[in-house]
C-alpha cells in the first residue's frame, strides 16, 4: 500500500460554497466536497481523495504527476500529518 501526503484547501462557509465548508485536493482535479462542519468536510475529503486515487489505479491510469511527487514513505513507525483546529 502506498501513502500520499496530499495538501488540501478548506474554505469557510460562504454564498459561493452554499454556506457549507468546502474542501478540495488541488492535485486531483475535481476532487472537492462540502460539509456542514470542518470535521465533516475533512472526513469527506479524505474519503473522496482515496476514491479518486483508487479509480486511477483501478483503470490503470497514471496518477497526476503532482500526486506521484507526493508519495510519502514513512521511516520507522512515526507518521507525521497536519490538522486544522478551531478555537
Query: Uncertain regions: pLDDT < 50 for 5+ in a row?
Result: none
User: What is the helix tally?
Assistant: 2
First-residue to last-residue Cα separation: 35 Å
CATH architecture: 2-Layer Sandwich
Can you describe what's shown?
This protein has 87 residues and is of the alpha+beta class. It has one domain: Double Stranded RNA Binding Domain (2-Layer Sandwich). 29% of the residues lie in helices and 17% in strands. The strands form two sheets. A three-stranded antiparallel beta sheet has the order 2-3-4, covered by helices on one side.
SSE inventory with pairings:
Blueprint: E1 3-4, E2 9-11, E3 21-24, E4 32-35, H1 38-58, H2 65-68, E5 71-72
Antiparallel strand pairs: 1-5, 2-3, 3-4
Q: What are the salient characteristics of this protein?
A:
Double Stranded RNA Binding Domain, 5 strands, 2 helices, alpha+beta, two-stranded antiparallel sheet, three-stranded antiparallel sheet, 87 residues, 29% helix, 17% strand
Brief overview:
With 87 residues, the chain is of the alpha+beta class.
